[in-house]
């Protein structure tokens, strides 16, 4: 199948882009509050997407708007703030590893909400993944006693939202163009983002006179253009080319990229944390693996 190679290309590109996003968030927080960063990221991304696809809004069918709006809040708006809040207390490398829970939550969400059956192997993968997550969080708290690892909860909540978003796109928006979904996502969320910027005094003259503030804005612009706007279109296309679990498996490679950036930036990451990361990825792999003899039948009937 021609799509078989294409989906891997999309997966690799997304892994590099999103793997770099965590360090960009960290740098953006040097001069911005997490609420300013999340809102600014949403606002810039909306502007980028509207500039290339605003005319696609009129092609969205009335029946699709409900799911596009839900997708916008779950897959873009809320996580943009939660990840920024998490990185005020936790290293970007650890946040990237915790983000690997997306495929596990995709399986759980598919089973609980979308009635997509899971194998015993997938359930085992979920259990192993959570064991690895627990080790990572506990060891991180021990290594960095000055960091509040309760903030890992913000990342975990985000992964649940991402998992819901993946299933929604595959189940209800399969026939909508990826760029159209991305542009539609930002119609209901760009105004709230602008309002948050206003109420957090983002536009005060004192802010713009600070060089660190201006530099942070540049990081957020790069994050918005590549890590959000471009990545959302690529990801929506990947979901449509493959399956929800395969698409969410972008988190296999993302930690490698993010960990490299984190180490280069001076973040601590021990062998035990590396072992915990490996456990998580094994769990993700098991959750993503299907029995070969019935996999084609599952792909054909899963979303009918």
- The helix tally amounts to 15
Computed Rg: 19 Å
Number of strands: 0
What fraction, in percent, of the residue positions are helical? Answer: over 70%
Q: What would you call the shape? A: globular
Query: How far apart are the first and last residues' alpha carbons, in Å?
Result: 22 Å
Instruction: Give the SSE order as H and E letters.
Output: HHHHHHHHHHHHHHH
Task: List low-confidence stretches.
Answer: 293-304
Q: Proportion of β residues? A: under 5%
Main sheet: strands, sense, barrel: none
What's the average pLDDT? 84
Structural class estimated from helices and strands: mainly alpha
Main features:
304 residues; 0% strand; disordered C terminus; mainly alpha; globular
Draw up the topology in text.
Elements: H1 2-28, H2 34-53, H3 62-86, H4 92-98, H5 102-112, H6 120-143, H7 152-172, H8 178-186, H9 190-199, H10 205-208, H11 211-241, H12 244-248, H13 254-264, H14 271-288, H15 292-301
Helix pairs in contact: 1-4, 1-11, 1-13, 2-3, 2-8, 2-9, 2-11, 3-7, 3-8, 4-13, 5-6, 5-7, 6-14, 8-11
Quick take:
By secondary structure, the protein is mostly helical.
Structural notes for this entry:
By secondary structure, this protein is mostly helical. The chain contains 15 helices and no strands. Helix 2 (34-53) packs antiparallel against helix 3 (62-86).
């Amino acid at each position: 199948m021609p799509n078989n190679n294409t989906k891997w290309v999309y997966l690799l590109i997304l892994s590099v882009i999103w793997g770099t996003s965590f360090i960009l968030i960290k740098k953006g927080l040097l001069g911005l509050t997490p609420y300013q960063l999340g809102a600014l990221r949403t606002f810039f991304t909306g502007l980028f997407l509207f500039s290339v696809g605003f005319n696609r809004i009129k092609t969205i069918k009335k029946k699709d708007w409900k799911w596009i709006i839900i997708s916008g809040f779950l897959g873009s708006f809320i996580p943009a703030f939660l990840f920024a809040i998490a990185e005020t207390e936790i290293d970007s490398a650890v946040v990237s590893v915790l983000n690997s829970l997306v495929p596990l939550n995709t399986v759980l969400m598919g089973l609980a909400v979308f009635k997509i059956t899971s194998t015993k192997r997938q359930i085992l993968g979920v259990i192993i993944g959570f064991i690895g997550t627990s080790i990572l969080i506990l060891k991180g708290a021990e290594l960095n006693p000055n960091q509040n690892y309760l903030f890992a909860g913000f990342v975990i909540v985000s992964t649940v939202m991402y998992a819901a978003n993946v299933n929604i796109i595959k189940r209800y928006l399969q026939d909508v163009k990826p760029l159209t979904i991305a542009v539609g996502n930002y119609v209901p969320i760009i105004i709230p983002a602008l309002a948050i910027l206003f109420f957090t005094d983002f536009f005060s003259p004192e802010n713009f006179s600070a060089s660190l503030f201006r530099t942070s804005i540049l990081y957020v612009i790069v994050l918005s253009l590549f890590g959000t706007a471009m990545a959302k279109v690529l990801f929506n296309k990947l979901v449509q080319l493959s399956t929800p679990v395969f698409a969410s498996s972008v988190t296999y490679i993302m930690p490698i990229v993010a960990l490299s950036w984190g180490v280069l930036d001076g973040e601590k990451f021990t062998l035990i944390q590396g072992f915990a990361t490996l456990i998580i990825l094994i769990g993700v792999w098991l959750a993503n693996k299907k029995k070969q003899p019935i996999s084609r039948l599952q792909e054909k009937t899963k979303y009918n």
